[in-house]
Every structure is written in structure tokens, then in C-alpha cells.
């Protein structure tokens, strides 16, 4: 493990600080840099297993008295971690890509939607780089569709190079106006096209490869801030 260098540090730190996975430090870096999660915010975590991002999201809400909520959805049944989480955190076992958006939005306070959507979802990898990248991009597009709904579909349809079938995104998304989304995808030639689709939807888009990312990984995160009317 010593040859891995920095990744060992994040693994040890996760254990020391009570995080269920080293991926906690990825969201911690993004939160420290962009300050997406604020007191009282409603947070949706897509693909929340094993729960490290639930922990960071709840921490970022501040004290329990400040309010806010964190909803995690995953194909696996995820137990809310006992460390760094409180009663504001809940998990749902379901395929979020097949859930009606109104059902997802109903999980938010007053059913008004979410201030921040987090997507650390990853497809089942085949080991074929081009195929895995394409699957990752498609999953990222689907996450975007959950967040912004018909607006995303319209921009994707206008994109001649997109291969994603987002015809189910015919209703409004679950992200509040002015809200933000973090989407993980694998680096490929599709990254530029993905950003082109997102830029008209948001006030600002940025790419980040967190320090906690393993050296062998091609993961990269798109941070989209300030959903705006299109």
C-alpha cells in the first residue's frame, strides 16, 4: 500500500475521523472551495452508498437547530451512519432514475425541492475505457435530468453528439431555482460536450479532480452553481 502514497493518507484519515469511506474528503474539498451547502439547505444525494457524503452533507448543515435535511437514494439499502449524521438524514432504497420526480421532490421539506443535488453515481464498469466513459457520461446526463427536468432534456436534444435517451425528463426537476449540483463522470472526449450542455443552465460551471481521488482513477466532478431560468 505504501506505493499508493496519498490515497493511504485519506483512507487512514477516514477511519480516524469516523467517515465510512475516503470519498468523504472529495465532498469536503468541494464544500470548502465552493460553499454549496448552507444552513437550512435541503440536500439530495444520488447514489449515496456507503454514506460518506451523507455525513459530510449533514456536517455542512451545522447544528441541528439550524434545520435543513439530507435525503440519500441508492439501489442498495444504506444505513444512516451513526457518526456525523443526525435526525435530519434519511435514506431511500430505490432506483432514482426510475422514480417520478414528484415522488423525489416530496421527500424535500414542504415538497419544495432541493437546494443541492449530489451525484456520486457510477455505472458498473467493464474495464473497457471508452465504454465505461460513455456509460458514466450517460449516467451523469440522467442525474442532470433528475435535477433540472425538461430544461435538461431540451438542451440535450439540441446537442447532436449526445447519445443519452432522456425522453423521460418531461417534467420539472427537483433542484430549486438558484440551486447547485455536483456530478461525477469519467474523463473522456465527452467532458467538453457535457460542460457545453450544462453551461446555459447554470450561472457557473467548474471542473475539479479532488485530491482524495485515487491516482489510477479517471473520475472528475462537474460543479454547477446557480440554476437559472432558460
TrEMBL record:
Belongs to the class I-like SAM-binding methyltransferase superfamily. RNA methyltransferase RlmE family. Keywords: Methyltransferase, rRNA processing, S-adenosyl-L-methionine, Transferase. InterPro entries: RNA_methyltr_RlmE, RNA_MeTrfase_FtsJ_dom, rRNA-MeTfrase_E, SAM-dependent_MTases_sf. The active site is at 184 (proton acceptor). Pfam families: FtsJ (PF01728). Coiled coil: none annotated. Residues 19-226 form the Ribosomal RNA methyltransferase FtsJ domain. GO terms for molecular function: rRNA (uridine-2'-O-)-methyltransferase activity. PANTHER family: RIBOSOMAL RNA METHYLTRANSFERASE, RRNA METHYLTRANSFERASE 2, MITOCHONDRIAL. SUPFAM superfamilies: S-adenosyl-L-methionine-dependent methyltransferases (SSF53335). Signal peptide: none annotated. This is rRNA methyltransferase 2, mitochondrial. The lineage of its organism: Eukaryota, Viridiplantae, Streptophyta, Embryophyta, Tracheophyta. It comes from the Eukaryota.
